[in-house]
Design brief:
The chain has two domains: 151 residues, Aspartate Aminotransferase, domain 1 (Alpha-Beta Complex), CATH 3.90.1150; 224 residues, Type I PLP-dependent aspartate aminotransferase-like (Major domain) (Aspartate Aminotransferase, domain 2), CATH 3.40.640.10. It has 14 helices and twelve strands. Strands 2-8-7-6-5-3-4 form a seven-stranded mixed β-sheet, with helices on both faces. The protein has a three-stranded antiparallel β-sheet with strand order 9-12-11. A two-stranded parallel sheet has the order 1-10. Helix 6 links the parallel strand 3 and strand 4. Helix 4 runs parallel beside helix 10 and helix 11 packs parallel to helix 14. Bound molecules: pyridoxal-5'-phosphate (PLP). The site of pyridoxal-5'-phosphate has 13 residues, from loops. The site of pyridoxal-5'-phosphate (PLP) has 13 residues, from loops.
Amino acid sequence: MLEISERTRSLGTENAFVVLKEVNELISKGKDIVNFCIGQPDFDTPEYIKQAAIKAIKDGKTGYTASPGIPELREAVAKYLSETRKISVNPDSVVVSNGAKPFIGYTILCVTDYGKGDEVLYPNPGFPIYESQIVANGAKPVPLPLLESKGYSFDLEYLKSKISKKTRLLILNSPHNPTGAVLDRKTLKAISDIVQEYENLWVFSDEVYSRMVHDFGFESIASLPGMQERTIIVDGVSKTYAMTGWRIGYASNEKLSPYLARWVTNTDSCAAHPNQYAALAALTGPQDESNKMMLSFKRRRDIIVDELNKIEGIKCLRPGGAFYVWPKVTEACELVKAKDSEEFRKRLLHDSGVAVLSDIHFGHRNKGEGEHIRFSYATSEINIREGIRRIKQFIEVNKKN
Ligand SMILES: Cc1ncc(COP(=O)(O)O)c(C=O)c1O
């Protein structure tokens, strides 16, 4: 019999895409759905970026590029990271790829060995690809619970207790998907003090939401003394410039960059050539449109948090960044007699046409944390208000029943 490997059969996934398929099928059957599922800006890519890609195609920039990326883009990224992270980044330390996502797997491959018991710490709840890639690449996943009582920041004592000589990599993600939490400088400093006690411990800093910090400035752990050397800074143009489908992300680390580039050679060869010019235009062109998008996310955050908190059975913290909220719906589940957040999500979708994700899509539930759902508020204010109206009605009707 032709068989599929155990590694592939057990591969995790990003449930946003699974639920999105379900949502699109319902929409194609004529169901009216307010969609809070997918983490991508609802704006179009700015025109000057599109024009840069069109020009690149017309100029014949259509062949392979060097695996780490075109020199102009690597230089622009180095300049951008140096300015925004207040460190000195060398263009040679920058590698470009098809989105930020591939760097998760590449980094794990670069710093752990298969089946040797190398451990990788990652946030839970968290972006599901972290755990999936850790397991698929033969390392040991060690989840770090992010708790509501700590504003979904790290429990530093717990972190300390989980780091050992076997730990090769700590994954950080701030602003965070799915909670929207932002790590402040004090917490990053405490994490950096813990990490620096270990010689062979890397930090993967997933900063794809770095421009979506709503209340104060963005801080990268790489900016702290002694941390740049061991930190792989990862960012991209997907979320900042409404360019999710263009697939351009980048990573920077002096020591790792040649190895990351070799992984690019072994997989995709290079990122799409014209799209690298689009990313170059995005980083070096006028920032007004991107800044406007970021401001609209802040406004929407305030609307969705205020409105969710008016609904019986729902409690929502006001997160500092990204375009996600992670309200607690334990009481709402009890009110409508849903056994958990996943049943609540399904009924909300089918009965009321509101699409969200539930906590089980972001890792194992942490004991005592209750039930949560995730909203991506990268959708219009009209949609946000309509979605909220439907949820309120869903709870009221089902409560009576
Ligand atoms: C935390 C996190 N990291 C990485 C990515 C992937 O970004 P990209 O589109 O650059 O691959 C996402 C996308 O949702 C994300 O939420």
